[in-house]
Amino acid sequence: GVLASALLLGACGSDDNAGGDSGDKIEWRFGHLADENHIWHQTAEKFAELVEENSDGQIEITLYPNNSLGGETDTINAIQSGTADMVISGETLQNWAPNAALMAVPYAFRDLDHVKSVVEGEIGDQIQSEIQDQAGLTALYYHTRAPRNLTSNQPIESPDDLSGFSMRVPNVPLFLDAWQAAGASPQVMDFNEVFTGLQQGVINGQENPVDLIQSGGLAEVQDYVNRTEHVYSWIYILVGNEQYNELSDELKEVVQNAAEEAQALGDELYESEIDNIEQELMDSGMEFVDVDQDAFREAMMPAIEASLDDEQLELYNQILDV
Ligand code: 2Q2
């Protein structure tokens, strides 16, 4: 039974049991970049609670919001070396699994229905298994994401307004290429450094969905949300392969069942919360600006095609046809 296998695991006290040093309990450290009020954190709390409850306390998951366990890339490296166990990540994984870039190709996805049909179809399965093989992370559930918009302190209605505009992008080479081609001066920073970078004028802007604009408190340091809507995407909740494979079949099932419930809760929270956030950002003083999206798409397209290799381009074309 579950207790016996947990004790057995405890008895051999596998020393690569990430984070957990007491034999009979598995302790996972789960880091992510959103704040405690964010949909991702609320869903992750439910996931952790279900896993702990249904494993009779054999697996304890501690959450570290606001990048308090380190930035996204550092957390991925920590999971691979066994000092962390779970992370929320997506296109940044292209640094290990190149085809993860396809999760967030600018202007590839028409809307969230298109995203859902890809992530739940064979392209999504392929990306998920390449992340498992090449990044060493197993996806447990995912969140669909509101579109990414460019924030700034001057209205930006077309790429012509981007000259001299320094902005932060996440550690996603494809984003660096796309925004460079659009005429901006992008640089990679961890999300938890963005607020200070904007406050000190090191950068003039950044791009993110409204929920992370809110989570990062960016209304205090940015006046405009320019509706570029340049990326519709999804993001995975992932655990290290080793950490997951260490579990007995019974505990794997507990984790999978909790993931299914978390998936449903995350979808529910998205539906109920995302539309309010735009109004909340306006109430905090941000002005939403309509932009010439075709001009941004045309400006980015050459960089997208240059940045993707043949296999990625093949997948990109398959996505366009879904
Ligand atoms: O801007 C960010 O850091 C976040 O929106 C995400 O983490 C980003 O989309 C990617 O790094 C996801 O892998």
TrEMBL record:
Q: What are the subcellular locations of this protein?
A: Cell envelope
Point out the coiled-coil segments of this chain.
241-268
User: Highest taxon of the source?
Assistant: Bacteria
> Which InterPro entries does this chain map to?
DctP_fam, TRAP_DctP, TRAP_DctP_sf
A Gene Ontology cellular-component term:
outer membrane-bounded periplasmic space
Per the UniProt entry, what are the Gene Ontology biological process annotations, in alphabetical order? Answer: transmembrane transport
Q: Which PROSITE patterns match?
A: PROKAR_LIPOPROTEIN
Q: Which UniProt keywords apply?
A: Coiled coil, Signal, Transport
Q: Pfam families, from UniProt?
A: DctP
Provide the family line: Belongs to the bacterial solute-binding protein 7 family.
Q: Which NCBIfam families match?
A: dctP, TRAP_S1
Identify this protein by name: C4-dicarboxylate ABC transporter
In its UniProt entry, the species of origin is given as Jeotgalibacillus proteolyticus
Q: Which lineage?
A: Bacteria, Bacillati, Bacillota, Bacilli, Bacillales
